[in-house]
Automatic annotation (TrEMBL):
One of its GO terms (biological process) is proteolysis. Residues 1-17 form the signal peptide. This is Retinoid-inducible serine carboxypeptidase. Transmembrane segments: none annotated. Gene3D superfamilies: alpha/beta hydrolase (3.40.50.1820). It is found in: Secreted. InterPro entries: AB_hydrolase_fold, Peptidase_S10. It comes from Leptidea sinapis. Its main location: secreted. One of its GO terms (cellular component) is extracellular region. It comes from the Eukaryota. Belongs to the peptidase S10 family.
Length: 611
């Protein structure tokens, strides 16, 4: 008997194809003649009496042409990860998530003929409204349930026009959705502006020298010119060229994390293809991972979901990108204003600080903070990085902050972590010293902070030599900032920094080029107690989130012990103890692979020398 019941059930219910155990639904919606869009819904696993108690979140990948059902789902936030293991932090735990392969032609979405591809952001938005009409036809229980559209990168640009078109349809009564918000993550909302920020951010981060900066800016301004004159297609091409300028000037910086480099084996042959691929990545470049995603999608997911045989999944659709090239550089800032002015739709924007393509400055995180920064090249030694934040009035004194011999980069720690205009979250600092001084941070030793060393094993062992380099660096600073050549100069140091600050002050005072400028030296925990300087270490590491309170206490204990040895004149023992600092921080204090010589990066197991 039960067998017949089941058979009856199967006959009367359209059995849903499914991949994995999560409650889901996937379907095509024909959004226009010849245009078939695919979506994949995962019902929330939240402990609620009905899933409609939770909002619907639509996830859109960037590109244009990046696939949400693949990248967004398996690589970012779906219920299964790339190893097909449960993802702990999947958004499905809280929301009903819909991955949409859009624009048509992306992922499992397809067109019957290339003429049906979209050419503008508005066409993309209208297709999306049609897709959502199909969605509510399939799932009428979601009508009225709060809806949020999350767009990543180019997806953020699409989300703006989708918000506008969805709201119009809601007001016209042609769709029964309840759109509450759109969100733009590292979004491509003002492309020309974004491209113009690449040079400054790389210069500020010390990743390019002045010439590299100028090459990048020249190229970016050309993209701007072409755009302003209405040559949109060529402006996109020029944007691609600007990317290659960036790679040339930075030796292949990783666009998605400017603190790292792209693998050198990468082939930079075709600039156009390369820049397009970078845009679609939405993540670090990793061909290996793409392979596995393409295998998962085409050999496992495709048959499980009953995707038509002729549709071949690709992480990024080149034809979709190419068809949108004339639209690529157009901003959606007016659309954002419209949403803010005329609707109650919540508009959210979030950004990672280390993303270059959709960079943070474009998104205003540096706000009004003024700065300039550069490398000073010291021949056969390396490049010394300095970062200058002028105060609001020119006649304020300059405060020079040097890194110390332990290798803590002031450009980063003392600046963001202590007294610069922005704090570690890039929020304006209330009591920054920049109100009273022009701040000049110098990563004094090549190999610390952003300063680079030509040869990692050739470490200068005399402070004389280092002071030579600093004199030269200061000279180049003044050459670049002639406006400040008469400003009084003070040097401020604490802890180990005094080792350099004292001889530098003496040298400046005895050099006619600078003797009029140098007015004073502030010494914090002076060099007489290098061990005491170490007491700051716990604070910094905790502030950076590398260790917890217990780790901080352990480091304090460590430095107290060193201090104690020093106070008993046991210098050799103290030095041995100091030499084990890196190991201690990582093995005993709970930090994981912290590199004390370059604190924004991790050490690898095979690192030699310094922890
Ligand atoms: C789900 O929620 C109900 C009611 O709040 C609660 O009694 C139950 O323990 C929850 N189940 C789980 C697995 O958390
Ligand atoms: C996921 O969560 C479980 C239980 O909280 C934990 O045991 C597991 O280590 C987590 N996995 C990852 C990859 O974080
Ligand atoms: C646009 O690029 C094409 C191909 O490189 C070139 O032939 C054309 O002259 C360019 N147009 C403008 C306005 O720069
Ligand atoms: C939004 O409102 C501001 C202030 O009223 C106005 O200046 C601006 O033009 C409006 N923008 C749009 C796109 O409607
Ligand atoms: C900044 O200073 C103002 C006025 O002194 C104070 O009200 C405010 O709480 C401070 N903000 C922070 C984040 O400390
Ligand atoms: C500094 O290093 C050089 C070789 O790099 C060595 O010859 C010299 O003795 C060292 N000086 C001191 C004071 O250690
Ligand atoms: C000051 O400079 C002169 C000339 O260059 C030099 O002879 C002298 O030793 C210097 N004094 C100090 C304290 O460095
Ligand atoms: C501090 O260090 C000493 C000597 O290594 C050790 O005996 C003691 O347990 C440590 N205390 C803490 C709080 O870590
Ligand atoms: C380290 O020394 C300071 C100053 O003597 C003291 O206040 C602190 O409690 C000590 N910390 C540890 C962990 O022993
Ligand atoms: C690290 O060292 C291990 C063992 O010496 C070696 O097998 C491995 O290939 C090394 N990895 C790298 C990235 O050099």
């Amino acid at each position: 008997m039960w067998f017949y019941l089941i058979a009856f059930y199967l006959l009367t219910h359209n059995v849903q194809a499914q991949f994995g155990d999560h409650k889901q639904y996937s379907s095509y919606v024909t959004v226009r003649e010849g245009a078939h869009m695919f979506y994949w819904l995962f019902y929330t696993t939240a402990n609620v009496s009905s899933y409609v108690e939770r909002p619907v979140v639509v996830w859109l990948q960037g590109g244009p042409g990046g696939s949400s059902t693949g990248i967004g789902n398996f690589d970012i936030l779906g219920p299964l990860d790339l190893s097909l293991q449960e993802r702990n932090y999947t958004w499905v735990k809280n929301f009903n998530v819909v991955f949409v392969d859009n624009p048509v032609g992306t992922g499992f979405s397809y067109v019957d003929d290339p003429q049906y591809l979209t050419t503008t952001n508005d066409e993309i938005a209208l297709d999306f409204v049609e897709l959502m009409r199909g969605f509510y036809r399939n799932h009428p229980e979601f009508e009225g349930v709060p809806l949020y559209i999350y767009g990543q990168s180019y997806g953020g640009k699409m989300a703006v026009d989708m918000g506008i078109r969805m709201r119009e349809a809601e007001e016209a009564g042609t769709i029964r959705s309840n759109l509450r918000g759109i969100a733009m993550g590292n979004a491509w909302i003002s492309p020309v502006d974004a491209t113009l920020t690449w040079g400054p951010i790389l210069l500020a981060a010390g990743l390019v020298d002045q010439r590299g900066y100028e090459n990048i800016q020249r190229s970016a301004r050309e993209a701007e010119r072409l755009f302003n004159e209405g040559h949109f297609f060529n402006s996109t091409a020029q944007w691609g060229l600007t990317q290659s300028q960036v790679f040339a000037a930075t030796e292949n910086v990783d666009f998605y994390n400017i603190l790292t480099k792209m693998p050198s084996r990468f082939n930079f042959g075709n600039i156009h293809e390369f820049s397009r691929d970078m845009m679609i990545r939405d993540m670090e470049y990793n061909p290996q991972r793409d392979m596995s995603l393409e295998t998962i999608m085409n050999t496992l997911v495709k048959p499980a979901l009953g995707i038509p045989e002729h549709v071949v999944w690709q992480a990024s659709s080149r034809i979709v990108f190419d068809t949108l090239r004339p639209d690529f550089m157009k901003p959606v800032t007016e659309g954002i204003e419209k949403l803010l002015n005329e609707t109650d739709i919540i508009v959210t924007k979030y950004n990672g600080n280390l993303d270059l393509i959709c960079s943070t400055p474009e998104n205003d995180a540096f706000g009004d903070v003024k700065y300039n920064a550069a490398f000073t090249r010291i021949r056969d030694v390396g490049d010394i990085f300095w970062w200058f934040f002028p105060s609001s009035e020119v006649d304020k004194p300059i405060l020079l902050l040097l890194g110390g011999i332990v290798g803590f980069p002031h450009s980063f720690l003392l600046n963001f972590g202590g007294l610069g205009p922005l704090d570690l979250n890039l929020n304006a600092r209330n009591n920054s010293l920049v109100e009273d001084f022009h701040l000049l941070f110098v990563d004094a030793l090549p190999g610390t902070g952003f300063s680079r060393q030509d040869d990692a094993f050739k470490v200068s062992n005399t402070s004389d030599e280092t002071v030579d380099h600093l004199m030269y660096t200061l000279q180049s600073f003044y050459e670049a900032n002639t406006k400040y050549e008469d400003a009084p100069l003070y040097i401020m140091e604490q802890g180990d920094g005094s080792l350099l600050a004292i001889p530098l002050t003496i040298r400046l005072a005895n050099d006619t080029r600078f003797s009029e400028n140098i007015k004073g030296l502030f010494l914090g925990n002076a060099i007489i107690s290098p061990a005491l300087a170490l007491t700051k270490l716990g604070f910094y590491l905790e502030e950076l989130g590398y260790i917890d309170g217990l780790g901080r206490e352990a480091i304090e204990n460590f430095s107290n012990t060193t201090s104690h040895l020093v106070s008993r004149n046991l210098f050799d023992e103290a030095f041995d103890q100091f030499a084990s600092l890196g190991e201690f921080v990582n093995e005993e204090a709970g930090a994981i692979a912290v590199n004390l010589a370059y604190i924004v990066q991790k050490i690898t197991r095979n690192s030699t020398g310094w922890y």
